[in-house]
Amino acid sequence: MSDNPTFWPGRLVRHSYNSGYIALSYVVSLAGCWTAVELLHIRTGAHGAHNWYLLIGAAISMGAVAIWSMHFIGNRAIDMAGDQDRLQIQYSPGFTAGSFFLPICGVGIAFYFFSVSESISPLTTIVGGLFMGSAVCGMHYMGQGGLANYTASYSWPWVLGSVVIAVVASTTALGIFFYFKSVWTNTWQKRAACAALLAVAVSGMHWVATRGTQYRLTSNASTNANGLSREAIVIAVICLV
Fold first, then answer.
1. Spacing of C-alpha 71 from chain mean position
2. Are 201 and 173 spatial neighbours (Cβ–Cβ below 8 Å)?
3. How many angstroms separate the most distant Cα atoms in the chain?
4. Residue 34, CA distances (Å) to 24, 29, 62, 194 in order
5. Where residue 1 falls among pLDDT bands split at 50, 70, 90?
C-alpha cells in the first residue's frame, strides 16, 4: 500500500487527462463511424445475404471500433494520482468482454430500424436513435462497471447530459444520413460529415460522463495484478482497429 494516506483503499484518487489520448480517441471513433456509414451506403436494400453482411459489418465497425475502442482509448487518457503506475485503472476481463458485444447488438438493432424501410418516418428515426444512444451509454457504463481496482461514482446532471448528447446526436446524424441517402451517391463529404457527427455523439457522451465521474480506490494498489492493465487494453484496441 502507498505510504501516502491519500491512496488508501476507500479514498477518492485525483486524476488528470492526457490531451493526446483524448484527440486519438476521437480519431478512432471517427474511423469506426465513417467505415460504418460507408458500409451502410453501399447496401442496395433491406433483404438478401449481401445486404445483411454489410449491415453486420457496419454494426461491428460502429460498436467495436467507434464505441468500444473509443471508450478504452479515452480511458487511457485518464492519469490517476500523477500517473503512478500501480494506481492506474485496471479492468475486469468479464465486464470488458461483455461491454464489447453490447454496443454491437444495440447498434445492429438501430441500423436495422433505419434501413428496414425505404422511407424514413419520425417514429423509425426516434426508435433507431434511442437504440443507438442506448448502445453508446450502455457500453460506457458497463465498461466503467468493469473497473478492477476502482469504484466509479457519478454526478447525475453529468449522466443526464451525456445521455442527451448520445441520443440527440445519434438520432440527428443517422436521420440525416438515411433520409438523404438516395441523393448522396457520390458525395463522400456529406457522408463524412454524418460520420463526424456520430463520432461527436460517442465522444461527447464519453467525456461529459467522464467529467462527472470520481474514482475511489477499492483495494491495495500492490495487489491489483489480476485485472487487465490499460496498456493491454490499448494493445487490443490497436489490433482491432
1. 5
2. yes
3. 64
4. 15, 9, 9, 8
5. very low
Can you tell me the distance from the alpha carbon of 104 to that of 65, in angstroms, rounded to the nearest whole number?
10
**Is residue 5 pLDDT above 60, yes or no?**
no
pLDDT single digits (tens) 102-121: 999 989 988 888 777 666 77
The model carries a pTM of 0.85
Write a three-state SS string for the chain: CCCCHHHCCCCECCEEECHHHHHHHHHHHHHHHHHHHHHHHCCCCCCCHHHHHHHHHHHHHHHHHHHHHHHHHHHHCEEEHHHCHHHCCCECHHHHHHHHHHHHHHHHHHHHHHHCCCCCCHHHHHHHHHHHHHHHHHHHHHHHHCECCEEEEECHHHHHHHHHHHHHHHHHHHHHHHHCHHHCCCCHHHHHHHHHHHHHHHHHHHHHHHHCEEEEECCCHHHCCCCECHHHHHHHHHHHC
Burial class of residue 192, CB neighbours in 10 A (0-12, 13-18, 19+): middle
For 102, residues 6+ apart whose C-beta sits below 8 A from its C-beta are: 63, 135, 138, 139, 142
